[in-house]
Write a structure and sequence with these properties.
InterPro entries: Thiolase-like. GO terms for molecular function: acyltransferase activity, transferring groups other than amino-acyl groups. This is Beta-ketoacyl-[acyl-carrier-protein] synthase III C-terminal domain-containing protein. There is one protein chain. With about 45 residues, this protein is α+β, with helices and mostly antiparallel strands. It has one domain. It has 1 helix and 2 strands. A two-stranded antiparallel ribbon has the order 1-2. Strand 1 and strand 2 form a beta hairpin. The longest helix is centred in the N-terminal third of the chain and has 9 residues. The protein starts with 8 loop residues before the first helix and ends with a strand.
Length: about 45
């Protein structure tokens, strides 16, 4: 665990998701932080 990353958690999960990707995989990443910090990303593996 990395502690409270806030909106940067999306980038951390993105890095982890590319460890073993498969072509055509899809996903949605959401990160919530203190106060009202929200970040999102929709992914499709080519």
């Amino acid at each position: 665990m990395c502690g409270n990353l806030g909106g940067a958690s999306v980038l951390d999960v993105l890095r982890r998701s590319f460890d073993e990707p498969s072509p055509g995989d899809q996903g949605v990443l959401l990160g919530f932080g203190p106060g009202f910090v929200v970040a999102a990303c929709k992914l499709t593996r080519a």
